[in-house]
Amino acid sequence: MFHGITKRWMLNTLSVIFTIIVLIVVSLIFVITYVFQNSVEQRLTSTCNELSLVFSGYTSNNASDFTAAAREYVENFDQKERMCVMVINASGKIILTSTGFVPSETEEMKDYEDAQKNKDGFAVWSGKLSSGEPAMSETRIISTENGIMVGAVRYIVSMEPINSRILIADAIIVALGMLMLALVIFSGLLFIRSIVKPIRSLSETAAQIAQGDFSASEKIEYKYDDEIGDLCSAVSDMAKDLQTTEQMKNDFISRVSHELRTPLTAIKGWAETMQLSERGTLDRRTFDRGMGVIIKESSRLTSIVEELLDFGRIQSGRMVLINEKIDIIAEFDEAVYMLKERAVEEGIHLLYDEDDSVYYPPVYGDRNRLRQVFLNILDNALKYTPKGGVVAAQVIYTKDDPDVIKIVITDSGCGISTEDLPRVKEKFYKANQSVGGSGIGLAVADEIMNLHNGSLDIESGEGVGTTVTLTFPVYQEGQENNTETKNIKL
After folding, report:
1. Which CATH architecture group holds 227-298?
2. Confidence class for position 333, pLDDT limits 50, 70, 90
3. Are strands 84-89 and 94-97 parallel, antiparallel or unpaired?
4. What's the pLDDT tens digit per position in 92-115?
5. pLDDT at residue 484 tops 60
6. Fewest Cβ atoms nearer than 10 Å: which of 1, 37, 201, 214?
7. Which long-range contacts (CB under 8 A, 24 or more apart) does 420-425 make?
């Protein structure tokens, strides 16, 4: 019936509360019992103290004189309804009682015996009489001024009414304790239910989400604005993010499939054309054109596969860099040179002039990976810039900031919307679906820059073009040329 959080609460919290309540109830029972019994004892003691006034200055050793004085005291005793008073002579025999009945001689008088032994001449006893009735008694020894015992007075109070009151009080205390425990259990179970029920529902929803049913997050309900509510909200947001990521992944697979199919189709088509043509009947121009398409599309396939492999390495948390001291400007020059012919073919002005009067310090990094970043950024700039547009690049290195070199690439393309700009470096995300590409190149480039302790920053506006700033830390003396393995996850 009880398991999980409820079981732990029952075993831990409730057991402690139960123990505390039991201790409180038992303590109160002891206190109540002590207070009632002590009040009876105080009453007996107070009544006994009156004897000092009745028998003060008593000097006679005559038993008859003592009996007469005691009789007068008993006859005038005003608490006969509350307690019984007995007069005992020097021989220990009961000679007079306020009830008129003398108890059996076999009745033990423990308090009388203790009072004789007590130097103060009194003692209290509590227990049961021979009849079985609970009682409390106190005996006071009467002595002359010379210390000679002439008798004793004994007071007896029935404890049955007191015990009844104690029993009623104890029952009330126990009932209150049980009520308190019931309230604690009830409120605790309500509180636990307010936690367990949404968590159980959340667990079921999470299982549905794990199976791919992201719409299950819409069923999440939470009434309270607390940690449980925050958890429900977090799971709901997580499901929406997962749904978005899943959609992006599916789009990515679709894009990659299309990107792979297009060159493969071209390669297969030209290969079949060249194979089916009779030997010697295919003119040189057509042959060269077909081989050019095959080589170009093969290079395109290689580029896509390499991009996917790099993405896989970063996704798995391992990227190998072969770091060395390199001339970053020379590497950028080569990347620009590799794309100049493409820019001319597409009618785009690719502008870049290196300032020979400025000394650019070396950078510590992997030349192949950094060239990959340059090619990716320049490729994106050309891809999104229309015919007649401009792609301009410049290198910035100043004495005001001598520890970094910046390469800024600006295009006059379609730009990126404000909504898409914060997410363009995320894996699988592609802002413009009308242009080809896998959508992971920028994410890979960004991680490569992070591996080099640099940064890739993008500024853009829809319809006004895009500016990408690559920042590289310059080489510092003492850095060694080695191969480093970095652990990075997208």
Report:
1. Orthogonal Bundle (1.10)
2. very high
3. antiparallel
4. 888 888 888 777 777 788 988 898
5. no
6. 1
7. 421/458, 421/460, 424/458, 425/456, 425/458
The per-residue pLDDT for 485 is: 42
Q: What are phi and psi of 261, to 5 degrees?
A: -70, -35
**Region 219-231: what's the mean pLDDT?**
71
Q: Where in the chain is the domain with CATH 1.10.287.130?
A: 227-298
CATH T-level assignment (fold) for domain 6-164: Beta-Lactamase (3.30.450)
Cα distance between residue 442 and residue 235, in whole Å:
29
Cα dihedral: 224, 226, 228, 232 (round 10)? 80
CA 151 and chain centroid, separation = 79
Within the chain, all domains assigned CATH 3.30.565.10 are found at: 317-486
pLDDT at 46 over 80: yes
Residue type, 174: V
CATH class, 317-486 region: alpha beta
